[in-house]
Each structure stands twice: as C-alpha cells, then as structure tokens.
C-alpha cells in the first residue's frame, strides 16, 4: 500500500472562548496516562481501538487545534476508546514543495509535548514521502483510519483536505465514513478578534513582530526551544547576565527587541531579548540574545535546554552611533521590561511558576 494523505489542513471551530492560561513548570510533568507515539503504521497494535481520530499537521497546536482535539478526547472517553492524532514528519511541503515550505511553529518534539497536555492517548507520526503522497483519500480512510486505527469518529476542520493531490475534503470524509463505519465530525472556522485562527495566520503575525496578537491565536505566548550558543561559558559559572541561543532553523519573530521569559532548565528568568544582526558592532551576524533581569550565576552546559518565550515587542533593531548609545537604549528597554513584569503583580516567590513550558 502507498500510504498517506496530502496537506491535511488546520482543524478549526468557532466555539472556543478566549482564555490564555499562564504556563507553569508543573506542566512539564507527565499526564495521568502517558501518551504513546507510533512512528510507523506497523507499530500500532492489531487490537488498538476503538478510536476517535484527528488528522493534520497541527503546527503550532493553536487554539483551533486545541478545540478540535479536546472535543475528540472527550468523545473518545465517552465511548471507552482512545483519542489519536495522526500527523506527519517532515511537513508535507518540505517534500512536495520545498521552495515554499514554511518554517515550523512547533518542531515535532514540542508538538508532541503539547498534544500530550491535551490528554491525547496516542500520536501516529507518519513519515511523509513522495510515495506516501500518492495514497488516495479512500485508501487512506480504509487502510489507515479503519483497518489500523479502528476509528469510530474522525474530527476535522472545515477546510480539511486529504489524499493524492488533496482531492479529498470534508464531504469526501463524510461519504467514506458512511461507507466504512465511522462518523465525520466537522468543525467550523474559528475567528478571534477578527483573525482566522490558523498556522499560516500565526506565522504572518510573528514574522511582522506581532507577538501579542499571535498569542491570542495560539492560546499561549509563542516560544522556541533550543540550547545555549557556543563560547558562552560552558562548564563554569556564568558571570554576565546574557545568554545566546544556538542556531535555530525554525520560525522566530521579526528582528527586534522583546520582553521575554527565558527558561534555563527548570528555572525562569525575566529578560529582554534581541533578535537580529547586531549592526552596532560592525560586521553583522545574526543572533538571538537575552539579557537576564533577575540574574544570578547559573551553570550553563551545551546540552542545557533553553525555552525562550516572547511576551511583547518593544522596538525594531537599529544601528546606534556608538556602543554607549546602545547601552543607554538597553537601559530604557530594561526599565520598560521591569515595569511590564511589575504590572503583572505577581510575587517573586511565584517566579518559577511563571516559567514557560510545553504546557497549554
């Protein structure tokens, strides 16, 4: 069998109320039931099911994704089945349209963590290949959704497409469901503050530096996970309150200066982060650099996990006439950031509880 689906779209609905929970370090813990991850069809047990399934790229695991998946999980619980997400790695565009392939909002490890926080029982990560893209909509429904996953329900957004050349849509899914014995649950478009909730819309906002508007659509502040950059004090105490991120190849917000959180392992620091080429220092070189506000000496190793969360954009990156002028501007940026964190009116003892994590 050639197996796959082409370009499953974001699942969307209009029923969610806007609420942006503050992420917590405790969210890094496992859920009550550990989520299973299958990387090939052959790994799925023969007796797996019955299931409620949702298929898609789920890049960002944004508010519309969360709504669809949450309903899928609740329905699966109601009939004693498992809630399963089917996704793809790499993103289909990277195989079929590499010239226009998007940078990811959530690389696969981050996406899996976020799906786990919505209590998904299992994720099937199908390796996306050109052969896989040749699967017809009918073959995918019969051979994957029914024969392997034993789907009782399939939950998808209104603009869902699947199968070779994206020929299948939600109407196709409904017809196949009647033929194959599963019910197609279709969700309408979700709009928040006049914006269509989708991965592509969130990318546009972030690439324009609109991190607060992107936060509304995501349901949480946008963050990236990386390691420390080289040459920044590996193996001994940090003495300068600045941390550089290693090269990061997926999506980051537009060049500029942002109020941010930086999680270093299990501890969170308030920070001012610069994304850009640092033109004041002569030869331009791209960097993501965070100035820590509530700094104290820390151990920073090459493998230390950093999670940088973008809260508010302060300004664009500009070239200053001197290093002293830059220092003066940084002092202004820091003052604005300190005021921002002060207005949150949270005690210092809760600082670790505010640390951004993979939780939703």
Features:
360 residues, alpha/beta, Rossmann fold, Elongation Factor Tu (Ef-tu), domain 3, 2 domains, six-stranded parallel β-sheet, six-stranded antiparallel β-sheet, 8 helices, 14 strands, 25% helix, disordered C terminus
**Which radius of gyration do the C-alpha atoms yield?**
22 Å
Q: List unreliable stretches of 5+ residues.
A: 1-32, 231-240, 355-360
Mean pLDDT: 84
Class by SSE composition = alpha/beta
Instruction: Count up the domains.
Output: 2
CATH topology of the largest domain: Rossmann fold
Largest sheet geometry: 6 strands, parallel
The rounded distance between the terminal residues' Cα atoms is: 37 Å
Reading off the top of the CATH hierarchy, the class of the largest domain is best stated as Alpha Beta
Percent range for β-strand residues: 15-25%
SSE topology string? EEHEHHEHEHEEEHHEEEEEEH
DSSP helix count? Answer: 8
Number of E-type strands: 14
Could you say what the CATH architecture of the largest domain is? 3-Layer(aba) Sandwich
